[in-house]
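A reminder before we start the practical. When you read a complex entry, don't treat the lines as separate problems. The point of joint prediction is that each chain is placed relative to the others, so the output describes one connected object in space. Small molecules and nucleic acid strands, if listed, are placed in the same frame. In the example below there are two entries. Take a minute to note the order of the lines before looking further.
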Amino acid sequence: MPAPIRLRELIRTIRTARTQAEEREMIQKECAAIRSSFREEDNTYRCRNVAKLLYMHMLGYPAHFGQLECLKLIASQKFTDKRIGYLGAMLLLDERQDVHLLMTNCIKNDLNHSTQYVQGLALCTLGCMGSSEMCRDLAGEVEKLLKTSNSYLRKKAALCAVHVIRKVPELMEMFLPATKNLLNEKNHGVLHTSVVLLTEMCERSPDMLAHFRKLVPQLVRILKNLIMSGYSPEHDVSGISDPFLQVRILRLLRILGRNDDDSSEAMNDILAQVATNTETSKNVGNAILYETVLTIMDIKSESGLRVLAINILGRFLLNNDKNIRYVALTSLLKTVQTDHNAVQRHRSTIVDCLKDLDVSIKRRAMELSFALVNGNNVRGMMKELLYFLDSCEPEFKADCASGIFLAAEKYAPSKRWHIDTIMRVLTTAGSYVRDDAVPNLIQLITNSVEMHAYTVQRLYKAILGDYSQQPLVQVASWCIGEYGDLLVSGQCEEEEPIQVTEDEVLDILESVLISNMSASVTRGYALTAIMKLSTRFTCTVNRIKKVVSIYGSSIDVELQQRAVEYNALFKKYDHMRPALLERMPVMEKVTTNGPAEIVQTNGETETAVLETKPPPSGLQPANQANDLLDLLGGSDITPVIPTAPTSKPATAGGELLDLLGDLNLTGIPSITAYNKNGLKIDFTFERSNTNPSVTVITIQASNSTELEMTDFVFQAAVPKTFQLQLLSPSSSVIPAFNSGTITQVIKVLNPQKQQLRMRIKLTYNHKGSAMQDLAEVNNFPPQSWQ
Amino acid sequence: MAYRWTSADLLLLSVEPMLYFQNTLIFTRALELMCCAASKTAFCSSSFSQCASVWTIHFILLFSRQGKLRLQKWYTTLPDKEKKKIIREIIQIILSRNQKTSSFVDWKDLKLVYKRYASLYFCCAIEDQDNELLTLEVVHRYVELLDRYFGNVCELDIIFNFEKAYFILDEFIIGGEVQETSKKTAVKAIEDSDMLQETVEEYMNKPAF
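Here is the predicted structure of the whole assembly.
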C-alpha cells in the first residue's frame, strides 16, 4: 500500500475543490484510506493520518473514529507523535467520552518525563480538557510540579491547578502549601499564573481570601516595581511594562480589598499612582486604567480616589475610540447608583452617545440616561430620550418607552407635561408600548382631573389619522368613552378647542371596531366606549343602540357577550343605565414593580390624587349590579357604628340567600328583642358551621303604626369579651302597617362562649318628631351562644 | 442498569431508549446523563457557567472573511453539534458588523471581543465582567507571536500550518488564562519543541513504544 499522502499535500488538494460536493468527495476518499490505515495498526503513519483527520475535523467533518488513535499517539515515545496526539486529544476528546479516561495513565507518565517539553504538553492538555476524574487522579502530580524550580513548568502547573480547582473545588486545600512563595518569583510567567491561581482560590473560598490578605503589601510592591522600572524589552507593550501582569494584580487587589478597610488603605497610593501615571494614548494603557477604575470603585477607597476614577471614565467617554467609550458607559452604569452626583457631571456626553452608530453603545447610553434623570433635568433629558425613541432600532423601543413612562411618573414637572409626554410616546412608538402600560396610563389620566378635556382632545386628534397602534387606540377609546361629553362641548382650556360632533366621535369609534388592524382587546375597549357615550351624548343614542345590537351577533365571543349585556341594559335595565355608566371615580394607585408612589413633585394641587377614602357612592351602583347577593358588598364595616344605608332597590331576601351558604339551620328559636311604640324588632339566629364561635343574628324591624318611620338607625353594643360586626341595613325606612321590614345582619364573635347580652339604641323619625330609645336584650336563647 | 429516580425523570425517560442506539456519540451521551442522574449531579450541557468560578476566555475562533474556520480552541465542554451551531452563529454576527462599530458584542451571557487582521478575524469569548480592552491586547499578542514565529504571518501560513498555530496558542494560553507574558520566551519554547521533533530518518528508526 502506498504511503498516505502528506498533510500539506492533502490541504493543497482539498483547496483546489471548486464545489462543496467535490470537497466532500475528496474528504470521504481520504477518510476511507485513513480508516483502513488505522485498522492495520500502522505505527509509522499514524501521526500523519491523525493530523490530516484534525484538519478535516476543522472543516466540519466527523472525526470521532480517530479518538483512540490519539491515545496511541500520546503513548508513543516519539515527540512528534506526542505533540499531535495531545493536540488531537484536546480537539476530539472531552469528558463526555468515556475513552478519555484512558489518557490518565499516559499523562501521569508524561508529567514525570525527563523532557520538560513533554511535561509541558501533559500539563497543557490536563489544564485545558481534564475531566474531574482525571483531575482527581493527577492533582498530586500537579501539586508536585507547582513546587519545582523550573519556571517553564511552574507556570503551567499553576494554570493546571486552576483548572483542577475549577473542576474539583474540594481539592483546593491541597494546593495551599505550594502557594507559599509563589510571589517571590522573578519570572513574569510564573508571577502571572500565580496571581491567577491566588485569584481563583480567593474567589472560591472566604477562608482563603482572609488567609491571602496578608499578601497585599507584596502585591503592591510588585506592581510598583512594574510601573517604576525602566524599559524592559522582554515585557514591554507600547512603553508599558507587562500590562497583563499589572491588570491581574489589580484584579487580585480588588478582590482582597473588597469590604476590608485595612487592605483598601494599603492600596490607595498605588492605585492613585497607576491612575495618574499610565499612558493613555494606546489601548494598552487604557486597559490598565480601566482595571484600576474597576478596582477603585469596588474597594473601600477614599472619596478623592473615587472622583478620580469617575473622571477617568468621563475622559474615556470623550475618547474617539469606540471601544473605550463602550467600556466607559458600562462602568458608569455600574457606578451610577453609588456615585450619582459624580456621574451627573458627564450627563451631556452620555446623552450624546445616544446618537452613536454602535448598537451596544446606544443601549448602554440609554440605560445610563434613565438612571440619571432627576427632578432638575427631566425636561431636557426627556426631550433627548423622546428623540431617541423616534430614531432608535425597534429592539430598543419597548424598553425606552417603559423607561420614559417611569421617569415621567416620578419626575413630571406638571400634569400637562406628563400627559404630553405620554401622548408623544404613544404616537411615536405606540405599537411597542408594553401591555401593562395601558392600564397604568388610564389610571394616570383619570387622576389628572383638570386635564381630562385636554387629554381626550389630544387623543382624539391622534387617532383620527391613524388607528393602527393598539395601545394608543385603547387608551384613546377609553378616554373618549369616559370624557366624550367634554370633547363635543369644546371645553378645552389648555389649547384651542376643536369642533367635534357626536356623530364624528362615533364614526371614529366604529372605524376602530370594524378595522382589521384592531386587536380583540381594542375592539372591546371601543364597544364599551360607545356604550358609555349613550349616557354622555344626547342626539345619537339611537345610533349607539343600533351599533350595540349589531355586535350582539358578533363572532368574537367577548364582543358578543358585551353587546348582549349592553343591549339588555337598553331594554330591561334602562333605569339603571345612567348610574351604571357614570363617570369613573379617581382610582387608587395599585403598586406595581416599578417605583409607584404618587407623584409628589407636581406644581399643581393634587387633591384628586391623594384621596384615599373609600370609593364614593358613584361606585356603588356599579358594584350593586354585581353584588346583589354578596353580603359584604362595598360598605364600611365597623363594630358598633352602623353604616349609611345603601340605596339598593333590592329587597332583603337577596342577602339572606348568601347567609345560607355555610350556616347551620338547626332551628334556634327567634326572639323579640324590642317591642315599643309600634316598633318591633325580632332576632333570628344562625350558627356558623365553619366557626363555632360565630353567631349570626338577623334583625327584622317592623312598624305597626299608621305612619312610616324614616331615618331608622340601629346600633348595638356587647360586653368586652365579645366582638360585634354590624352589616348594612336593607333600608332606613320602615313602612307603616307592617307592610315591610328593615333587615340587618349582626355577626357576633363569642370565643369564650359566654352568655350573650346586648344593649341596643334606636333612633328614627316618626310622625314628624325624632325618636330615640335605649334597651337591653337579655333573652338570648342558650343555643345562640353555647 | 440501576439508577435512582430523581426529578430529572422525564428527561431520563426520553434518554433511556438512546442507550440502544448504534451511534456511539448518542450512546455515550445517554450514558453520561444516566450516570449523572444516579450521582444526582446536575447536568448542564450547554450552560456556560457550569462551575461557580469565573473563566476568563471561553473559546477562541479564527475565521476568514468568507466565513471559513481556520482555528477553534474551546476551553469549555460542549457537544460537537452545539459547537458547530455556535460557530455558525458567531461568524454570522461578526461578519455582519460594519466598520464603525466597537469591537465588542454582547452575546448570550458572554462578550465577544473580535479584531480583524488582514483577511482573518480573531474572536474571543469572555465573561461579562472581564476586561475587554485587555482581551484586545491578548488577541494582539497572539498575532504578534504568530508573526514572530512565521515571519510576516499571513492567512496561508495558518491554513497550511494549522497545527503550529495551535502549538503557539498553547504556549500562550492554558485553560483560558495567559501563561506567558514574554514574547521571547513563548516563541523560544515553540522553537525548542520543534527541535525536539524527530527528523524523518530519526522518526522511521525510533521505536514507537
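Discuss with your neighbour: The CA atoms of residues 30 and 75 of chain B lie 23 Å apart. What might explain this?
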